């Protein structure tokens, strides 16, 4: 597979990357559609209603920019800046854990940065137009944010060799967390989200709360950094573990 990718024409790879990113949006929307209909799913924000043209335009823009990042990664790989391996087994699992941990802290830092008063109106406010989020809201980003996340991802890959399996698993995990956090509902049953493990692993409720009140819950995969820097919503743990989570009041 690596030999095939290395010999591809740039135009052919760009087309492949575009198809891949369109599929990620489609799979994410399908995953969200299924999660919204899980038995016991509790709506935490109002139903967003019909999708707007602005949101679709942002999703399309992000898809194109993610394609450009993928092509940039391909060029860096061909130039030897990014090194990929075909390792499997426990090493792959360890790499996945490292990727999640590193990206968790970097994404928290990046997210906190775009919430600074000087930057928020110009960059991140656009994403928060969609407070009552839907699955594809994950991809409704300001172009600077899409490029920034992509650049962060490429830097991480350039620092250390990673296996294709670990990158694939991380991409899938990132999509699942992103979609579940933009449902506007809590699909996990109380016996799951009430477990002590989910004190540290982010539930869908956590990012829904961020869209309802942007000053809280800046993390993505874990609550570690929000707890450390006191940006976790004060009532999050009670809402997370409640038999019936209390809905958010937008802008509260």
TrEMBL record:
Residues 97-231 form the Fatty acid hydroxylase domain. One of its GO terms (molecular function) is oxidoreductase activity. One of its GO terms (biological process) is lipid biosynthetic process. It comes from the Bacteria. It is found in: Membrane. One of its GO terms (cellular component) is membrane. Keywords: Membrane, Transmembrane, Transmembrane helix. InterPro entries: Fatty_acid_hydroxylase, Sterol_Desaturase_Related. It holds the Pfam family FA_hydroxylase. The keyword Transmembrane applies. The keyword Membrane applies. The chain crosses the membrane at residues 12-36, 56-76, 96-116, 136-156, 162-185. PANTHER family: STEROL DESATURASE. This is Sterol desaturase/sphingolipid hydroxylase (Fatty acid hydroxylase superfamily). The lineage of its organism: Bacteria, Bacillati, Actinomycetota, Actinomycetes, Micromonosporales.
């Amino acid at each position: 597979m690596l030999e095939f990718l290395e010999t591809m024409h740039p135009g052919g790879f760009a087309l492949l990357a575009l198809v891949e990113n369109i599929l990620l949006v489609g799979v994410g929307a399908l995953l969200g559609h299924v999660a919204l209909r899980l038995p016991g799913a509790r709506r935490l924000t109002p139903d967003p209603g019909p999708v707007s043209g602005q949101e679709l335009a942002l999703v399309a823009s992000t898809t194109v920019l993610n394609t450009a990042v993928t092509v940039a990664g391909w060029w860096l790989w061909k130039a030897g800046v990014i090194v990929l391996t075909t390792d499997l087994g426990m090493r792959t699992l360890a790499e996945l854990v490292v990727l999640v941990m590193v990206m968790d802290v970097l994404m928290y830092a990046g997210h906190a940065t775009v919430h600074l008063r000087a930057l928020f109106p110009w960059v991140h406010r656009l994403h928060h137009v969609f407070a009552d989020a839907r699955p594809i809201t994950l991809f409704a980003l300001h172009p600077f944010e899409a490029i920034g996340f992509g650049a962060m991802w490429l830097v991480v890959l350039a620092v250390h060799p990673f296996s294709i399996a670990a990158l694939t698993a991380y991409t899938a995990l990132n999509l699942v967390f992103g979609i579940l956090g933009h449902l506007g509902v809590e699909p996990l049953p109380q016996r799951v989200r009430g477990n002590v493990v989910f004190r540290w692993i982010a539930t869908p409720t956590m990012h829904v709360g961020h869209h309802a009140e942007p000053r809280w819950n800046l993390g993505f995969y874990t609550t570690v950094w929000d707890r450390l820097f006191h940006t976790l919503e004060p009532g999050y743990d009670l809402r997370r573990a409640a038999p019936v989570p209390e809905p958010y009041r937008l802008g509260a």
